[in-house]
Specification:
The complex is a heterodimer of chains A (244) and B (497). By secondary structure, chain A is mostly helical. Chain A contains 12 helices and no strands. At the A-B interface, helix 1, helix 3, helix 6, helix 7 and helix 10 of A face helix 2, helix 3, helix 5, helix 7 and helix 9 of B.
Chain lengths: 244, 497
């Protein structure tokens, strides 16, 4: 087996490990940190079912962002939806046989790739053109967009210009999953694409990409407005009651 | 006055998002608290020797105690959705008054000391050391936030800058850097029982005076009871209602409602304050200690219900936090919500036909309603979401004929802060208060021009004080400001009439 294959095999095991362990640790931290007070941003739903509906609207439609800024919403929502389609399209590399829904989604995933590039370009343009957003942008904000654009562009190049041996890629991926390691084609664009994806996985649990799990734990969104009906008390606050 | 001269912003007929002016408000520095005040609240009397490590340790403690802080430090993606939502940014153009930038003052420290990326690649993620300059910046800009939560409405992750401001003030207090205005007031509540520092006998005197004036006005024996054991209702109101204008007009309104409904009520000299500035400094223990007076008074007086007067942050604390802080209220009548807002109380009586009004008495007024931020975005009234918008307006239209709302993007949960909430209602922040009122005053000017509005009512003692002070800067008369129960007071039918 070539050094290249060994390097990428190790890289993806490491990246997967960091991604999973990092996210589990973060999610655990969010889950166990108490919320001592009722702070839903009102008007808020008064029942758990209502909270699930509010959260679903935030996750699927980006409702608050829509209220806030239509341009950011258009680019941001389009990016996330197209990213989802592209990721679903890539599931075919992880399955044998391939599920029917993944087969059906293939053409949409292709076009979504272009829309994703456009949306990312729009998000990046805002970082330069809107003076307020320019002020708050850090180098990592720019690099994150560059990283996503580079992943998307390298993928589109392989799809439309310089095809790679996708059967071999699939064998490599399935080999990773089955611990039956297969050679990775030494195609520079493919290697770039995969390396950047691994980088994205590595930085996910230590970067602003934590907004994804964070949203589910945001007390202003995930609490029901029932403070008068149900006494809400955290362990450390209850301890104060005992002391008094 | 201690503050330098400044220019009042020009009112525009439509909202304009300003271009950022770096450092425009960097000179703002609210007066710090003196040693005795800090001591009363259980904080170090002056900046401690090893303040830096103490501050980081405190931040670590708070990250473990508050889910909001932990999640909000991580979740921001710098999308800019909040960047044009804060009234202080809109009024001052200082980019550090954008919610995201205010949060980043803490986030850059969080990243430096609590994240891998910030420890090893500080420049990349905008992480910095906690230096004296950073601390000074914290003191300036975390005392330029009114904790109004408007940003949290628009953030795609619900990030609430108020939570971060509260944590920052808590950290600063814990190392001996407190703000004079807020901490002095909390001290007065601990020592005397209310924000004004008005002792029991003075309060009794004041209420007797109001009682006499009300008798002169109405010819009726309308009571303002204090410390009456066995009363049905314990009424908790901001102490400004006892003497400030126009607050006192609403106090008279509450008394008339109780009188007309024939419900026995009492105020308490022990719990003579609805306000709870403990929330403003994010200090759970002080907030709880202030709130405990209400529980003690309710038990002592043996009341069945607790009703809260017109006060924004007080209602947030009462509605959202009391059950946590001083509950359970199993000793009160379970048929009524605990606590109940005076607007819920009055509205309920109106809906049941128990109160009658001469609406024409308010015909000289063309009215608009200012939603106070803590009521709008941090609490509720009635039994459905948004009741806090419906109920006060339903009272207004029941007692007056001419009512017009301001533009929809400036009311309900989109309402703009008065500019003086969250512990900023102090003369040493007058420039900030005037400029922060700009978005609200612009919306007000539009209904003044369009409908001839001459009276803006509200249900918050801080809003009332703030507007009476800042409206004149914009060429409006301070007599435009009033309370909902001021209108009720004017129109309510009493006695046998």
């Amino acid at each position: 087996m070539s050094m290249l294959t060994i390097f990428y095999t190790v890289l993806f095991y490491a990246a997967s490990g960091v991604l999973v362990i990092g996210l589990v640790r973060k999610i655990r931290c969010y889950a166990i940190t108490p919320a001592p007070l009722k702070i839903p941003t009102t008007p808020a739903p008064t029942t758990a079912a209502g909270v699930r509906w509010r959260m679903a609207r935030e996750v699927v439609l980006f409702e608050s962002l829509f209220k806030s800024s239509k341009w950011t919403w258009i680019f941001g929502w389009a990016f996330h939806v197209t990213l989802l389609l592209v990721v679903l399209r890539h599931l075919r590399y992880f399955q044998e046989p391939v599920w029917l829904p993944v087969v059906l989604i293939q053409p949409f995933g292709t076009y979504a790739g272009f829309a994703m590039m456009a949306a990312l370009a729009g998000l990046w343009a805002r970082r330069w053109l809107v003076d307020r957003v320019r002020y708050i942008s850090t180098p990592s904000d720019h690099l994150m967009l560059a990283l996503l654009l580079a992943i998307g562009l390298s993928g589109l190049v392989m799809r439309f210009i310089a095809h790679t041996d996708i059967l071999a890629v699939k064998a490599f991926v399935l080999g990773l999953m089955r611990f039956d390691w297969q050679p990775l084609p030494a195609d520079p664009i493919l290697l770039l694409h995969l390396a950047l994806v691994a980088l994205l996985m590595l930085i996910f649990p230590i970067s602003k990409l934590l907004h994804a799990p964070g949203l589910f734990f945001s007390p202003t969104r995930n609490q029901a407005d029932n403070a008068r009906e149900v006494r809400h008390i955290s362990a450390w606050a209850a301890a104060l009651d005992k002391k008094a | 006055m201690a503050t330098a001269a400044f220019e009042t912003p020009k009112l525009k007929s439509y909202p304009v998002i300003p271009l950022v002016q770096v450092g425009a408000m960097a000179h703002i520095k609210s007066f710090p608290a003196a040693a005795p005040i800090q001591k009363t609240l259980g904080f170090p009397e002056a900046l401690v020797e090893d303040w830096q490590s103490k501050a980081i340790a405190k931040m670590g403690e708070l990250l473990g105690k508050y889910k909001s802080l932990q999640v909000y430090m991580d979740a921001c993606v710098h999308c800019g959705a909040c960047s044009d939502k804060c009234h202080y940014f809109l009024g001052t153009a200082d980019p550090k008054n954008m919610p995201v930038a205010r949060q980043d003052l803490m986030r850059k420290i969080y990243r430096r000391y609590f994240t891998l990326a910030g420890k090893y690649f500080p420049k990349l993620v905008g992480a910095v050391d906690l230096t004296r300059e950073v601390l000074d910046e914290w003191y300036s800009y975390f005392n330029q936030c009114s904790e109004c939560r408007r940003c949290s409405v628009f953030c795609p992750y619900g990030i609430d800058t108020a939570e971060i401001t509260m944590a920052a003030r808590e950290i600063m207090d814990s190392i001996g850097l407190g703000q004079k205005y807020t901490n002095e007031i909390i001290g007065k509540v601990h020592n005397i029982g209310n924000n004004l520092g008005m002792p029991g006998p003075a309060l009794r005197n004041t209420l007797e005076g109001v009682e006499e004036d009300t008798k002169d006005e109405t010819g009726l024996d309308i009571k303002f009871p204090l410390d009456v054991k066995g009363a049905e209702v314990l009424f908790i109101t901001p102490s400004a209602d006892f003497f400030a204008e126009p607050h006192i007009e609403s106090l008279i309104g509450y008394a008339k409602v109780f009188h007309a409904a024939g419900i026995s009520w009492t105020m308490s000299s022990h719990a003579s304050e609805a306000g709870n500035f403990g929330m403003f400094i994010g200090n759970y223990e002080n907030m709880r200690r202030v709130a405990l007076r209400v529980r003690e008074a309710a038990l002592e007086l043996g009341v069945k219900r607790i009703v809260v007067g017109e006060c924004g942050h007080a209602w947030r604390v009462a509605y959202s936090f009391w059950n946590t802080l001083i509950g359970p209220f199993d000793y009160l009548d379970p048929r009524y919500p605990v606590p109940q807002h005076i607007c819920e109380f009055t509205d309920d009586l109106i809906q049941r036909g128990a109160l009658q009004f001469d609406k024409e008495a308010n015909d000289d007024r063309i009215i608009t309603f200012h939603d106070s931020c803590n009521v709008a975005r941090g609490s509720r009234m009635g039994n459905m979401p948004g009741g806090q918008f419906i109920i006060p307006r339903r009272i207004i239209t029941s007692v007056a004929n001419h009512f017009y709302d301001m533009a929809h993007e400036t009311i309900h949960e989109n309402t703009f802060c008065c500019g003086g909430g969250g512990g900023l209602l102090t003369d040493d922040l007058m420039e900030l208060r005037v400029k922060g009122a700009l978005p609200r005053v612009e919306a007000l000017k539009n209904v003044v021009d369009e409908h001839g509005v001459n009276f803006m009512v509200m249900i918050c003692a801080i809003c009332k004080s703030q507007f009476t002070k800042v409206l004149p800067y914009y060429g409006f008369n301070m007599s435009m400001v009033g309370g909902v129960h001021q209108l009720v007071s004017k129109a309510i039918r009493l006695g046998d009439k």
